[in-house]
Amino acid sequence: MKKITNIGVFTSGGDAPGMNAAIRAVVRTAIYENIQVTGIYRGYQGMIEADFVDMNRRSVSSIIQKGGTVLKSARCLEFKTKEGRQQAYDNIKAHGIDALVAIGGDGTFTGADLFSKEFDIPVMCIPGTIDNDLYGSDYTLGYDTANNTVIEAIDKIRDTASSHSRVFFVEVMGRDSGCIALNAGVGGGAEAILMPEVDTGITELFGELELAESRNKSSMIVIIAEGDQNGGAYNVAKIVKDKFDHLDIKVSILGHLQRGGSPSSFDRVLATRMGFKAVKELMNGNSRATVGLRGTAIVTTPLEEALSKKEFKLDEELLAIANIMNK
Amino acid sequence: MKKITNIGVFTSGGDAPGMNAAIRAVVRTAIYENIQVTGIYRGYQGMIEADFVDMNRRSVSSIIQKGGTVLKSARCLEFKTKEGRQQAYDNIKAHGIDALVAIGGDGTFTGADLFSKEFDIPVMCIPGTIDNDLYGSDYTLGYDTANNTVIEAIDKIRDTASSHSRVFFVEVMGRDSGCIALNAGVGGGAEAILMPEVDTGITELFGELELAESRNKSSMIVIIAEGDQNGGAYNVAKIVKDKFDHLDIKVSILGHLQRGGSPSSFDRVLATRMGFKAVKELMNGNSRATVGLRGTAIVTTPLEEALSKKEFKLDEELLAIANIMNK
Amino acid sequence: MKKITNIGVFTSGGDAPGMNAAIRAVVRTAIYENIQVTGIYRGYQGMIEADFVDMNRRSVSSIIQKGGTVLKSARCLEFKTKEGRQQAYDNIKAHGIDALVAIGGDGTFTGADLFSKEFDIPVMCIPGTIDNDLYGSDYTLGYDTANNTVIEAIDKIRDTASSHSRVFFVEVMGRDSGCIALNAGVGGGAEAILMPEVDTGITELFGELELAESRNKSSMIVIIAEGDQNGGAYNVAKIVKDKFDHLDIKVSILGHLQRGGSPSSFDRVLATRMGFKAVKELMNGNSRATVGLRGTAIVTTPLEEALSKKEFKLDEELLAIANIMNK
Amino acid sequence: MKKITNIGVFTSGGDAPGMNAAIRAVVRTAIYENIQVTGIYRGYQGMIEADFVDMNRRSVSSIIQKGGTVLKSARCLEFKTKEGRQQAYDNIKAHGIDALVAIGGDGTFTGADLFSKEFDIPVMCIPGTIDNDLYGSDYTLGYDTANNTVIEAIDKIRDTASSHSRVFFVEVMGRDSGCIALNAGVGGGAEAILMPEVDTGITELFGELELAESRNKSSMIVIIAEGDQNGGAYNVAKIVKDKFDHLDIKVSILGHLQRGGSPSSFDRVLATRMGFKAVKELMNGNSRATVGLRGTAIVTTPLEEALSKKEFKLDEELLAIANIMNK
């Protein structure tokens, strides 16, 4: 097995709090192990454009607490072409990079897997996305921080909702994943939660609202994942308003502030452990795998498995609990 | 002048952080002065329904840090009728209330003024609204807290915006007031700010964006007050997208979370001073006036003056500064 | 097995964020299952004084986001006596309480175990302490929130430390546990971490400081668990000052603010799941057990086992990582 | 009057949130006016060591939200000597700096005044200190942020205090100034407040505590400015414990976290206005003056006046209010 001398690290896809902490851990672990580190800007785009920076311990000072990613991120269509990937490979080869750590989500991992196979370059992947929708880790980087951001928003909305006896439809992120909706919904004490994985009919929602009214709750907060079948919050609000005309209904789309913010302690530590593990695994000859948290341990999963399998991240029991807490 | 024996306190109109701190101050000051205090729920609606509660020091324990209003708030059309007001008066008279402290905005003050004249009952008004759009006080209750909420949101959005080189159109509250937009825009380091009071043409905005691009800023954040002439953030985003098709544009509507949250130190202290002053003024025979902050002093302004005059709350100099900071 | 009709719930020992969320979950789950719930104030003291309150769904409205415990907590020497426990039993019997949910730490569990055996009353325990020093759960209630509180404090201290090139000795809670010190230390990017479980000699610390100096770091932050062998932060600071007289050294004792604050999303959801589980287990005839989080599942552990066993909660790997991140 | 071509900006003395926002405003305003800006590191020390950096718009990107100061700060004894100042002058002259903006407190202003007179170099001062103890401005930079930091800490301490019916003695910053103690004390709903400017005898404090006890308050929080005559919190706690042995007393020294943190909206806007004004005044030939906030206007005060006069920043009325709120 060839000794690794220069690791290229990059972030790709949607940014998530904790990515900087992961970059920091990759850089400091590698340097501690006398391996050089090259920062690749804007993910695959930066590879194709040879947008590189040599990193040292100082390059990652005081970034552990920063949201976003200092290496930037970008979508890159060109990398989907053989020519694009060839260009990328020529660049990293020319720069002496002989291994990669990719931080991102599904698309990032798919590209890394393909690239690694085509050019036989070792790669380890770190799951970074607030959606928590990746196989191989109980929690993805940024998910915990996003949940905290959402419950803080719900707490604020609850203040005004209960002052005015209003019904709020709060849309949270999650095109295909209800993780934030369910967890932040339970954490925020929502009266109802709509998410893609669970087919909550509108009539069911009507029931929840009637029940809450019958208990003359001073306010109601309905959390809706953006990917829910009933459409976004605006749509659901409209349907409800048509039936419950007397209700004072408001809509709140939390949007991209869910992606930012200083990472939580949980995400900072998780990112640090994942970055450390990714480098160690590369040194041990592991490749085409993701690092992840299982219980309290950092484990690895072959990319092939991680990309082919899906895990239902919504705790069945928590779904039942959510229904009981507000009944 | 008749000695006051029972003060009725209520909140009306949109809630704002600091209202609870003001209620607490009214209650504790009055009781300290051996005056009874009656809490009136849901503003004028509660007056008409005689929805009262006798308050003591304990009724306001641990509410100084709470957003919203423990006395609730509501719109009340009935109070606009002579019959409604007569009913309200009969109720407060029956309950022994001989003076009022009204906490709220424009509409609240108008009703208080009319009611006070019709039934010759002393009333003092406390300006509580995040919009800071009232005459007679440099700052209204909740405005400082709302500004902090907005810059925290902008800071989070900036994380993700700069990671992706995106342009964000962030809509903040302010139907007729650009106070939050301007202050939070300057505080958040926005690239451009659109507000009702200033007629920023779209072409001007185009210029700002071109300039920012020419400086290849990694991200741009445009703050838009909901009441801006160019329409809300969605509308402006659409217009800009038509002209700058290459830009990666996102929209964020902060919405009602701006109304909630634990009040800032500034708002807690201001509310406490205003509540104290309102009671003292009633004791001194003052009526039909608002309390407000001028410089570092708490002053009063006759309701007639407060309701008839408008003050341009946007510091002219700050408008100029906003344009320089990002040029 | 006797059907349970009335569950007494109480908090005891040091309070922790998430206790209210757990109380809420116990109450709402029990009522949903047609079981009455009695709130017992001030833990065992309240049992002895029959300081009870019948709880309904409304009793726990809007407490999920509150720090501390609405049922209060207290130390109780009297409960260590047979007479005290007899009195407590007579009271709960008289009130119709036929099962208990105890929320707290080591001492709370010991008392619950003894009480349950003596009077053959079913009891389930929920681990609530910021120290994360209990066997049977990967995380205890309040630990995640405390970690966030500490890293926020460290981030603030870092601002001023780096502005002045200062060395800070920050003391965090943990008499016998270094969990907060290690996790918040890693999360806060501390230059060194001292904790009870790891015998870091002062000379070793000197080495760390010399190394950091040799890298002319603009600032250094040393985290010290209150229970560390080298004594608290003041003591360590004095020893270091004697050797490194040129350093600008400051001490910060974070103290009890670590115990308070609105619980994190993680703690709110964990508390809700634990409270639900505790009631379900009592219904299923389980007793003398603790509920806990293992991986992503809520499990139970016999009290006997939980009280006799110790688990080393400091991830060995994380200890190594901590040393690498700042080298 | 000589046209200014190169402004040297520096921070000195204790750092305060908002200093970075002020630096940013100075840099961007000057560049907008085609004036060069030189950053001087570590205040007067950097002047003597010619530790300079040429600044452009980009040098101050994304620092408006950062606590501390990117230009660092330091104490400098050498500057108190004629030789030191001569060296400093030779350096700035050699670098082409022909005007200065000094951001800091009393000591910083004194040095600036002396230096400006000795070498006839124009200087404007910006009041940056969390203590709010400078003449010429209603608020100093960082004061508002510090107040928010302190009330957040008090809110957290209140959670645990009320859960355990404890008495907390919380020490806040302010060697000669009770501004933070009074404002945060009122904002945090403290039962008693001790500050240097007000001679509150211990017996008076005993009275407050007895009163609070007589009302069987579930908890008591006493705020103590570090400069209070009765000594720090530890000392006062000891004295109280001797008399009220039955009380469960805890001490919390908030310490340096009060100096850090992201500046509040109020401080960011104030800093931006002050930085803008300082440059404008230099351009208009003004010198040896401080900028400050009076009401809603940014004004200037001659350094001579600012340094000779003292203003009692504790609002007399607020002192009375503090006593009423908890009686």
Automatic annotation (TrEMBL), chains A, B, C, D:
<dbReference type="InterPro" id="IPR012828">
    <property type="entry name" value="PFKA_ATP_prok"/>
</dbReference>
<protein>
    <recommendedName>
        <fullName>ATP-dependent 6-phosphofructokinase</fullName>
        <ecNumber>2.7.1.11</ecNumber>
    </recommendedName>
</protein>
<feature type="binding site" description="in other chain">
    <location>
        <position position="215"/>
    </location>
    <ligand>
        <name>ADP</name>
    </ligand>
</feature>
<dbReference type="GO" id="GO:0003872">
    <property type="term" value="F:6-phosphofructokinase activity"/>
</dbReference>
<feature type="binding site" description="in other chain">
    <location>
        <begin position="217"/>
        <end position="219"/>
    </location>
    <ligand>
        <name>ADP</name>
    </ligand>
</feature>
<feature type="domain" description="Phosphofructokinase">
    <location>
        <begin position="6"/>
        <end position="280"/>
    </location>
</feature>
<dbReference type="InterPro" id="IPR012003">
    <property type="entry name" value="ATP_PFK_prok-type"/>
</dbReference>
<feature type="binding site">
    <location>
        <position position="166"/>
    </location>
    <ligand>
        <name>substrate</name>
    </ligand>
</feature>
<dbReference type="GO" id="GO:0061621">
    <property type="term" value="P:canonical glycolysis"/>
</dbReference>
<dbReference type="GO" id="GO:0046872">
    <property type="term" value="F:metal ion binding"/>
</dbReference>
<feature type="binding site">
    <location>
        <begin position="105"/>
        <end position="108"/>
    </location>
    <ligand>
        <name>ATP</name>
    </ligand>
</feature>
<feature type="binding site" description="in other chain">
    <location>
        <position position="226"/>
    </location>
    <ligand>
        <name>substrate</name>
    </ligand>
</feature>
<keyword id="KW-0324">Glycolysis</keyword>
<feature type="binding site">
    <location>
        <position position="106"/>
    </location>
    <ligand>
        <name>Mg(2+)</name>
    </ligand>
</feature>
<dbReference type="GO" id="GO:0005945">
    <property type="term" value="C:6-phosphofructokinase complex"/>
</dbReference>
<feature type="binding site" description="in other chain">
    <location>
        <begin position="256"/>
        <end position="259"/>
    </location>
    <ligand>
        <name>substrate</name>
    </ligand>
</feature>
<keyword id="KW-0547">Nucleotide-binding</keyword>
<dbReference type="GO" id="GO:0030388">
    <property type="term" value="P:fructose 1,6-bisphosphate metabolic process"/>
</dbReference>
<dbReference type="GO" id="GO:0006002">
    <property type="term" value="P:fructose 6-phosphate metabolic process"/>
</dbReference>
<feature type="binding site">
    <location>
        <begin position="24"/>
        <end position="28"/>
    </location>
    <ligand>
        <name>ADP</name>
    </ligand>
</feature>
<comment type="function">
    <text>Catalyzes the phosphorylation of D-fructose 6-phosphate to fructose 1,6-bisphosphate by ATP, the first committing step of glycolysis.</text>
</comment>
<dbReference type="Pfam" id="PF00365">
    <property type="entry name" value="PFK"/>
</dbReference>
<comment type="subunit">
    <text>Homotetramer.</text>
</comment>
<feature type="binding site" description="in other chain">
    <location>
        <position position="158"/>
    </location>
    <ligand>
        <name>ADP</name>
    </ligand>
</feature>
<comment type="pathway">
    <text>Carbohydrate degradation; glycolysis; D-glyceraldehyde 3-phosphate and glycerone phosphate from D-glucose: step 3/4.</text>
</comment>
<dbReference type="GO" id="GO:0048029">
    <property type="term" value="F:monosaccharide binding"/>
</dbReference>
<comment type="similarity">
    <text>Belongs to the phosphofructokinase type A (PFKA) family. ATP-dependent PFK group I subfamily. Prokaryotic clade 'B1' sub-subfamily.</text>
</comment>
<dbReference type="GO" id="GO:0042802">
    <property type="term" value="F:identical protein binding"/>
</dbReference>
<keyword id="KW-0460">Magnesium</keyword>
<feature type="binding site" description="in other chain">
    <location>
        <begin position="173"/>
        <end position="175"/>
    </location>
    <ligand>
        <name>substrate</name>
    </ligand>
</feature>
<dbReference type="InterPro" id="IPR015912">
    <property type="entry name" value="Phosphofructokinase_CS"/>
</dbReference>
<keyword id="KW-0808">Transferase</keyword>
<keyword id="KW-0963">Cytoplasm</keyword>
<dbReference type="InterPro" id="IPR022953">
    <property type="entry name" value="ATP_PFK"/>
</dbReference>
<feature type="binding site">
    <location>
        <position position="250"/>
    </location>
    <ligand>
        <name>substrate</name>
    </ligand>
</feature>
<dbReference type="GO" id="GO:0070095">
    <property type="term" value="F:fructose-6-phosphate binding"/>
</dbReference>
<dbReference type="InterPro" id="IPR000023">
    <property type="entry name" value="Phosphofructokinase_dom"/>
</dbReference>
<dbReference type="GO" id="GO:0005524">
    <property type="term" value="F:ATP binding"/>
</dbReference>
<dbReference type="InterPro" id="IPR035966">
    <property type="entry name" value="PKF_sf"/>
</dbReference>
<feature type="binding site" description="in other chain">
    <location>
        <begin position="189"/>
        <end position="191"/>
    </location>
    <ligand>
        <name>ADP</name>
    </ligand>
</feature>
<keyword id="KW-0479">Metal-binding</keyword>
<keyword id="KW-0418">Kinase</keyword>
